[in-house]
Amino acid sequence: MHAFQLDKIGAHIVARDVAAPTPERGDVVVAVRAAGICHSDAHYRSGDSPTGELPLTLGHEVAGVITAVGEDVPAQRVGERVSLHYLVTCGRCYYCRHGLEQFCESGAMIGKHRDGGFAEQIAVPERNALRLPDSVSFEHAAVLMCSAATALHALRKARFAANERVAVFGVGGLGMAAVQLARAMGAMEVFAVDLDAEKLRAAERYGAIGVDASRGDAVRTVMERTAGRGVDVALELVGRPETVRSALLSLAPTGRAAVAGIGDDPVSIHAYREVTGTEAEIIGVSDHQREELELLLEMVERGRLDIGGIVTERIPFDVTALNERLDRLDIYHSPVRSVMTREA
């Protein structure tokens, strides 16, 4: 079968013919119908975020149809439409038992530590294949598995509560989902901060107050719009030192900054003036959990979350097109979310 693999750090993805997967006990094989192109994929390609052994098939936002099952998996699952939870965990270690599966002692992420969904087929444990409602398309389900799930996890980690104010720094795929989720969960106001006017207009259509960081100090704008108080929760979804600092400085006293962006540069913080003096919190956000995916799928099915505006580009399974999108992500110049799609 065809697969698009990372062969060398810092180099373009290559197309290869590889052996098709066969299901082991407890596994399902899924024919990939859609695979999202995430900024994390660009970080894996560049080496900013370490991966497993190369060559490696990337792609962690995956949806498709089950075509084969291993022992101990009900045969009736063949033909089922599914989206894939990208964290493969043991379910038995301390972290799995205590609701912290993203820190599983033997955990592996598809498309990072084990082969992912930039391929015709992928094998995963049955538990990782979530039944997809008929009303949710493959491409929309694929991006739910990462961008929307991470945004929801970030809001939950930040202990967001109804009637609080939220600022979202970076309104790509994660940020657009975060804006909608915060609104659906009862935010009083949501500020969307970005440099891209088109993305800001899209966020405003979902009820956000757009803040164009290219036109001045975004923190000052947020403070002015909140009468000098600041926001209760700030989500940092970019991974750059300046946006981490802006998220922190936009907080009201006792505010919480949840940092989900991936970056490799250190951030300078004045501990007393910017953290201790206001009792601010800086909270790390790592991945998400399976039960959050189930909640998201139900929200989409009920019309409380619109993924249609997040998937802004659909491309065929083509390695040249994939590398071009990753090149654009490297320089933070890309559509909200691109998805590769395959016909049955």
User: What proportion of the residues is helical, as a percent range?
Assistant: 25-40%
Distance between the termini: 14 Å
Shape summary: globular
**DSSP strand (E) fraction?**
25-35%
Number of helices: 10
Order of helices and strands: EEEHEEEEHEEEHEHEHEHEHEHEHEHE
- The beta-strand count equals 18
Task: Provide the low-confidence segments as ranges.
Answer: none
How confident overall, as mean pLDDT?
A: 93
Largest sheet: 7 strands, mixed
Radius of gyration: 20 Å
Concise synopsis of the structure shown:
The chain contains 10 helices and 18 strands. The chain has helices at 39-46, 94-97, 138-157, 173-184, 197-205, 218-225, 241-249, 271-275, 290-301, 319-330, and strands at 2-6, 14-17, 27-37, 56-57, 61-69, 81-84, 87-88, 108-109, 121-125, 129-131, 165-169, 189-194, 209-212, 231-236, 251-259, 281-284, 313-316, 338-341. Strands 3, 5, 6, 9, 10, 17 and 18 form a 7-stranded mixed β-sheet that branches. Strands 13-12-11-14-15-16 form a 6-stranded parallel β-sheet, sandwiched between helices.
